Amino acid sequence: MPPQPNPNAVFLNIPYDQDFQSLYIAYIVGLYQLGLTPFLTSGIPGGERRLDRILALIQSCRYSIHDLSRVELSATPPATPRSNMPLELGLTITWAKMHPKRHTWFLWESIHRRIQKSMSDLDGTDAHIHSGTVVGVLSELRNAFVRDGAPSVQAMMVAYSAVESSIHEILEGAGTRNLYAAATFRELCLLARGAARLTQEGIKDGLAT
Which domain holds residue 32? Predict the structure, then answer.
């Protein structure tokens, strides 16, 4: 039996494409604002045992978010921007079914009821609808992870703007244009963690409630 999962860890199963970048940043910032820590498969090294490492990462997280909003129903052939997403969702559902007290997973979409068409086997599962916006992601994170003393969406947006304004610097320093790479993901997390500390200080001072 794997060790108990980190109670604040959230596995993010999201598209790794340019058009999703603003929502990706919102997830990272929003989770830190709520005292949670995001994890991605992009930080896992390759090799023949990569699948085992992915499963171990899922098992180490108390929660997971699976964002299906980039599934293109009209595409030919139909595809998601990252073809591993359904595999990671399947692994997560299987693990959660076997150990329901160790893992809770959430589905996210941008359009109401589209999930019944994109993945009909998930019909009956309620999805968090973010409408493809940063505010939507932050708002639904607060709904999914209810926390006493959680910052307002407005305060979270201030933190998002501060982090987003540093993205060019992060990419330039890493010598890459890929914000989903392991090194840039780490830098993004460091910024988001720092922004979360500032938000909490503001809440204590009565400025961000």
Answer: 6-147
